Amino acid sequence: MSTVLRRSTLARHGLVFLGLAIVLLLLTSFVFDSYTNYNVTEVAIYAIAAAGLTVLTGINGQVSLGHGALMMIGAYTTSVLLTRYPDLPLILMLVASIATTGIAGAIVGLAGARLRGPYLAGATLALAVALPQVPSHFASVFGGNQGLTIVAPAPPAFLSNFSPEQWLAWITLLAALITFFVLANLVRSATGQRFRMVRDNEVAARLSGVDVARTQVLAFVVSAACAGLAGSLFAYWVTLTSPSGFTLNLSLSLLTAIVIGGLGSLSGAVLGSFILVYLPVWTGGFASSLNLSSNVANNVPLAIYGIVLIVAILVFPRGVAGGVASIARGVTRALRASRGTGPLPAAPEAPSQ
Amino acid sequence: MRPEITRSRTWAVAAVGGAAVLLSAACGSASSTANTASAPGVTATTVTIGSTQPLTGPAAPGYSEIAPASNAYFKYVNAHGGVNGRKIAYTYLDDQYNPTSTTTQTRKLVLQTQVFAMFQALGTPTHLSVVSYLNSEHVPDLFVASGCNCWNNTSQYPDTFGWQPNYTIEGKILGQYIVQNFATKKIGFFLQGPNDEFGTDGFMGVNDSLQGKGLSVDSTPAYYTPTAAGAMAVGAAIAGLQAQGVQVIVSFSVPLFTAIAEASAAGLNYHPQFVVSNVGSDPPTLSTILTGGSLGKALPAALIAGTISDTYLPLLTDAANPWVTLFKSIKAQYAPSLPWDGNVEYGMAEAYTFVQALRAAGQNPTRASIVAAVQSSHWTDGPGLTPYAYSSSDHNGFTGVQMVTVGADGTLTTLGGVEITDDTPTGAITAFTGTPSTPPANGIPSD
After folding, report:
1. Which of A42, A165, A242 sits opposite B111 (nearest CB)?
2. Beta-strand runs (E) in B225-374
3. What ipTM score was computed for the predicted complex, to two decimals?
């Protein structure tokens, strides 16, 4: 058994994710109240999208400022389909959203493979700004600025004592676990290796026989498919799909999540999403406890949020995941030193991912 | 997870309840029963209500004062014993006038704060995103701060109530004034939209009155989106109306966008007659926006002189009006930092209606009893120029307005009397003949 686990990444990941699934199932079912489940769902949605962005930006080296727009494609796929055919099952909605967004990702990726650095950022930024304008021009399909309202999925009959928030938390966490399982295996596979080669040195990758453009498009498709899944779940979570949900702010927030969490690490995507959801909750509570005049108090949460982000980036330049790793290394070194094993050569810095 | 009531606690509750029954029987009075935690958000000493408000963002100028003003009125009531011995705790959260934020903030109020009822949730596009949810959870959704016709839908939204005259009623009366006074001019529209019920309901109402009167109407309205990007497109929209030769612009817009529209027109040396919905026309709010420099440079407040609008509350400057005296004195004591403007008057007046409803809901209110109370009380007294229309088949609040115009000094003058109508296309507009009500001496609704 242990040799199987040591040799097979798939089996090892499978076991870890199964354990996580059981823990989360128990937490959402018996520990969390409805509002916690509601927030946990949000964390999971952001984590799915951020994980996709991590693969694209952190591992393949392509910057996207347009992932909010890709989430929008997923959300609208679900909402438009549900408005027309309210009886279709949720799983079909998720698959359809992954498919449409994946196709959109392939198109953006084809353009993106020709662009580098700031030009790619600019092109994806244009997507994030332009796409939210589309619904108001095709109001009969997309519901215009008002958007489309859908109903949160009801728990099945055998779970009739479940609240809708609990049920959606189940679905979303399961979707997130599957996504992370797939991505964790992908980044350790030969394909993941090619993603990193393209990021680190395109010329060297090409000399090693890697088709750079194809790899970049594939990374974009994988990343977009995650955004599509997140978008679909987002539609169910908000119960409203309107341009107001997919502002440039969303795209920037996703990028913030992966940078603050730790660029290039999947666990960083989860940490970043957690910070993204809970930081405003904490800062909001703090602001209202200060008893400021309303003009100031209304803007304090945003200001604190900004300051915390700036400080976090300054203190943890490699994100929270990177920060935790270097603290752990420091502690290990200190322990070894105190045991008298003598000063060890400094541990190699983690690859700057 | 809700804590389970243990068996011993159940017995204790039963024992206390039994004792209370015996006690009240001994006293021979049914009204001396103790205050209980009769509903979510209700304890023996407090009632917690919630709201989503544009405290920041494009609709914040002006509107961000509404909830603090209501809260000032609640503080006044609380300082005078509260309602049936309970103090009102009002939690209002910022949704930035963004419907997606409204959904998350409303979930927070219902699931975490566990409010008894929603009160005064502001905005048409914003509140439309949660109205189904609130009704499916049977959370009373009282006095939405928006004039959308959609709140009066007793079959789909039995727990939702409007308060201000709906935009179609308002539009019909504005339209009638246009027919009577600007029959020879070309009429155009500047609306929040497209496909935003705020704009479309108002447009519908004005058109109901203009229909068949032979006026020249520019049938394609100019639209704005209530976002920062939308603000930049207003100039082009107004220039479009100018190019069409529009002489009267009917505007259903939030204050910031009314101000931008009027400033853009002036910048184009274009001087149409503006006819603006009540919600976007409060002169102190507009003049603060114009003179405060938030439009890039300080502009003269006199830009809005001559604008025509309407009101359903007493004029701010009517010092003899007992409602104005009452609200001004409460504001001075409990919210001295707020200006005295239409938003503050609105917040105070709507809070008064809520206290009426909470009193009528009984000593131990439930979510069902407050909805029933609003439907069946048929209050004839309230701060509005007309009575409330509330009944089991009608969830509209006030159903009439009085036309007003902005003077050079920024104060409003009435144009004619109060008129009432309904929101059907052919419903007649009639003069309101009732006498206006006055508040009780202590300023708190009594039974």
Report:
1. A165
2. 248-252, 273-276, 308-311
3. 0.82
